[in-house]
Description:
Layout: H1 7-20, H2 24-29, H3 32-39, H4 46-61, H5 70-74, H6 81-92, H7 101-111, H8 123-133, H9 139-153, H10 171-174, E1 192-202, E2 205-210, E3 221-222, E4 225-227, H11 234-246, E5 249-262, E6 267-279, E7 289-293, H12 305-308
Parallel strand pairs: 1-6
Antiparallel strand pairs: 1-2, 1-4, 2-3, 2-7, 5-6
Helix pairs in contact: 6-9, 7-9
Amino acid sequence: MLQQTQVKTVLPYFFNFIEKFPTIRDLADADLEIVLKMWEGLGYYARARNFHKAANIVSKEFNGHIPDNFQTFLTLPGVGDYIGSAVLSIVFSHPLAVVDGNVKRVLARLFCLDHPVNASSSHPFFKAWAQTLLDKTDPGTFNQAVMELGAMICTPKKTQCSLCPVSEWCNSFTTHTVNDYPKRVTSRPVPTYHIAAGVVQKNKKILITRRKLDGLLGGLWEFPGGKLKKDETAKDACIREIKEETGITVTVASHLTTVHHAYTHFKIIMDVFYCRFIQGKVHLNGPIDYRWVSVKELNNFAFPKANLKFIPYLE
Length: 315
């Protein structure tokens, strides 16, 4: 849960998750849809899907015991160098340095490192520095301390150098260049996509569809829709997308709202319409499942955050 997500955001999800799934076997035995519902709103849903897969593997192949061999642990879905080093150093005291965004920032300022922290090619460089500094007698505590230093003191802005326990050894502090580090590669502008989605009504029920299990927002439910084509109106795109995805014909009754939402690598502007069912039977093209549900039943399904922004408006 802490991958790409702040602790304050994670905490309520963590406690609810642990209460729902107190053991690895409980998680492994749970339906993926329930797991995604518990994760709803936390984002990066591939983490939840991989966690569920990993729990199944650990439960079945390792008799419920987390493998303490680094290479074996790396074979679990969703486990990379960061998760592998964090878990095995904290739980099993393996001398493995953790490198995340906070650690890179601390290292860059400590040693005035010019390698850009947001370039994937820089990771081995920062990993080597972190491994050199690692306290091999207590690697778990050391890793957590460096991560906390970056999260609480050596922050991206308004750095609290006066409170830093290592400021006297920090090259950027002693040379008054703290604000020059870390170095970053200039990111490309984030694209914005215009989306149209439809709340299709039929006999007091609403149509929802489920996304494929892999890819962005995999396994979540949503209201059918998609990107506008060039020179296409949002209204026309809504009708077309619903037809292409579900095979049914609808007409737009009214505009419900416009939702703005940002993902990691792009933003969306989503026009949401109330639609009336005209004719046809549902034949899915893209989604893997569908349901006709009441507004009250929507709470039983896991939706992307962009959908959650307008669901409260539904009647």
